[in-house]
Amino acid sequence: KETQLFLQGRENKEITNKLIQEISILKKEQAPFPVTIKENMNDTAIIITCYNDSKFIKCQYELIKRFHKESVDIIIVDNSTDPETTEQIKYYNKEMGCIYMKTNASSKNGSESHAFSLNLSYHIYKNDYNYIFYIDFDCFPIKEFSIKEMLNGKIMTGVGQNKDGIEYFWPGFVLFNNGEIDRSLVNFSCNNDLRLDTGGNLHSVISTYGKDKCPFIPETHVQNPHFNKSMYNFYADINAGGFMHFIGGSGWNKEEDLEHN
Fold first, then answer.
1. Which residues neighbour 112 within 8 Å (Cβ) at sequence distance 6 or greater?
2. CA 232, CA 110: separation in Å to the nearest integer?
3. Count of CB atoms within 10 A of residue 233's CB?
4. For residue 124, with 0-12 CB atoms within 10 Å meaning exposed, 13-18 middle and 19 or more buried, which class applies?
5. CA neighbor of 75 nearest in space, from 87, 88, 64
6. Residue 252: how many other CB atoms lie within 10 Å
7. pTM over 0.85
8. 193 with 11: CB under 8 angstroms?
9. For 142-189, how does the pLDDT look when each residue is reduced to its tens digit (9 = 90+)?
10. Is-contact 169 202, C-beta < 8 A?
11. Which residues contact residue 80 at a Cβ distance below 8 angstroms, ignoring those fewer than 6 apart?
C-alpha cells in the first residue's frame, strides 16, 4: 500500500510497474535482500549509480573520501546486466565498505533503466538521510567539497537541463535537502508528455520552490585530446573546477573505441 501511494500519479507507467514488482520481490522472505545495510548511518548520503562498468568505482570512492569534508555514507546502486561486472563491483564494494544495492532494472531503454534504479534507491533510503547527493560513476570530485555547504539555504541544486524552456536537473549530478523537500516531488522518471529525458519530472521541484531555492551548478565543456571521437572529445568541468565528468565514460554512446586515460 505504501509503495502504491508513493507512486500514485506517476507518469511513466512502465517504470512504476517495474518498481512495484521489484519492491515486492525484495519483501519476500525467501528472496535474498540485495541491499547491504550499515549501522550508525550518517545524515548524509552519496548515491552512485553504476551500469556495466566497474573501472571507475574505486577511484571515485577514494576521491570522495579524500575531498568530502564531513562523514558520509556512500551507497553503490548496481544496475548492471553483466554478471562479471556485478561481481567486480561487489568485490570493490566489500573492500571499500560501502552500502551496496543491486537492482534488476536494466532494459533496452537506457533512460528508463536509469530512472528505475534512481527511484528504487530513493524509495528505500528516503527516510534515512537529511541530505542526498546522486552522482554518476564517471563524475569525480577534484577538490574539497561539502554537500551541506553546497546546499546552504537551497532545496535542490545540480547540473541543469533545459528543453524548450522547461528546466530540470540531470540526475547524474543532483543533490538536495531531503529533510526539507516535499519527497513526493522526488521522481527521476522521464516526462514523456513534455519530452524530457531522465530526471525530467524534477522540473516540478523547480516550479514548486523557484530558481532561488533550486539553482543550477555551472558546467563548462573542456576539450580533451585523449578522447578520439569528435562528438565526445571533451569533459565537463562542474562547479568551477570542483568536479570532472568524463562524457561518455559510462559507455552510453556505444563508442567502443573511445579512449579513456
1. 12, 14, 15, 189, 190
2. 18
3. 18
4. middle
5. 64
6. 14
7. no
8. yes
9. 999 999 999 999 999 999 999 999 999 999 999 999 999 999 999 999
10. yes
11. 50, 51, 52, 53, 86, 89, 106
